């Protein structure tokens, strides 16, 4: 179901994941290889090792070819989704029934009056598509499972939370009602703190930068610094 929601809301793409008679499409197959296959699990461990021992990045690894092929297929489909979205907008804009994130992003990116340095090029737009998948695929189910686990090992918290939730007289509370429960808010925040579905996100700086320090420090030669530069971090 998560794939169907991401496909519809993100890119107006039909996965048909809940259709028992539906065939697995190319994008679903590529995502499965990238995120749920044995090769992807091995690659996750290998990437962690490569981060600690950079020289390992130059060595061939098991399953790397399969992962590269799956990644290439996903990017190929992402490019086609972008082309389709751009064509729809040129033909007449976004209809009331088609307001997926990709279409909204493309339309906003094409709006007149936006400075050129604030526009996303096609490569940047395409890069958002895998981000949507990674951010949305199973994160909700993982968070729910971890929340249930946390409540099972803390029965007093479970009882207090149940008591607060049972104060609602109906089975379909509104968001305003749910947001009014302070203990529910605390439980959700604590679960996200202790058991985050996405524990970390690796980012790469696009340009060198300088980090200011609250207090200067002395290097081994006695020279004082009040900032940390990129070169100093590396060497």
TrEMBL record:
Q: Which UniProt keywords apply?
A: Heme, Iron, Membrane, Metal-binding, Monooxygenase, Oxidoreductase, Transmembrane, Transmembrane helix
Q: Which Gene3D superfamilies match?
A: Cytochrome P450
Q: In which pathway does it act?
A: Secondary metabolite biosynthesis; terpenoid biosynthesis
Gene Ontology CC terms: membrane
Q: Which Pfam families match?
A: p450
As for family, the record states: Belongs to the cytochrome P450 family.
Q: Which GO terms describe its molecular function?
A: heme binding; iron ion binding; monooxygenase activity; oxidoreductase activity, acting on paired donors, with incorporation or reduction of molecular oxygen
Q: Does the keyword Iron apply?
A: yes
Report the source organism: Mycena albidolilacea
Instruction: Please identify the protein, giving its name as recorded.
Output: Cytochrome P450
Q: Which InterPro entries match?
A: Cyt_P450, Cyt_P450_E_grp-I, Cyt_P450_sf, Cytochrome_P450_monoxygenase
Query: Where does it reside?
Result: Membrane
According to its UniProt record, which cofactors does this protein need? Answer: heme
Q: Which residues form a coiled coil?
A: none
Q: Main localisation, per the record?
A: membrane
């Amino acid at each position: 179901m998560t794939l169907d929601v991401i496909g519809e809301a993100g890119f107006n793409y039909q996965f048909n994941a809940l259709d028992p008679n539906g065939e697995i499409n190319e994008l679903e197959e590529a995502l499965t290889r990238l995120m749920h296959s044995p090769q992807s699990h091995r690659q996750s461990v290998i990437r962690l090792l490569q981060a600690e021992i950079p020289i390992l990045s130059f060595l061939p690894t098991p399953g790397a070819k399969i992962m590269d092929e799956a990644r290439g297929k996903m990017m190929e489909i992402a490019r086609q989704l972008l082309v389709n979205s751009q064509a729809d907008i040129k033909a007449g804009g976004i209809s009331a029934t088609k307001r997926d994130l990709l279409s909204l992003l493309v339309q906003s990116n094409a709006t007149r009056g936006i400075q050129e340095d604030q526009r996303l090029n096609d490569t940047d737009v395409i890069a958002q598509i895998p981000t949507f998948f990674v951010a949305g695929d199973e994160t909700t189910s993982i968070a729910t499972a971890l929340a249930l686990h946390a409540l099972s090992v803390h029965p007093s918290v479970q009882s207090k939370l149940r008591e607060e939730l049972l104060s609602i007289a109906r089975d379909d509370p509104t968001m305003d009602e749910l947001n009014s429960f302070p203990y529910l808010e605390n439980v959700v925040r604590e679960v996200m703190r202790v058991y985050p579905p996405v524990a970390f996100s690796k980012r790469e700086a696009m340009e060198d930068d300088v980090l200011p320090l609250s207090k200067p420090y002395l290097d081994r030669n006695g020279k004082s610094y009040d900032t940390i530069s990129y070169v100093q971090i590396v060497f």
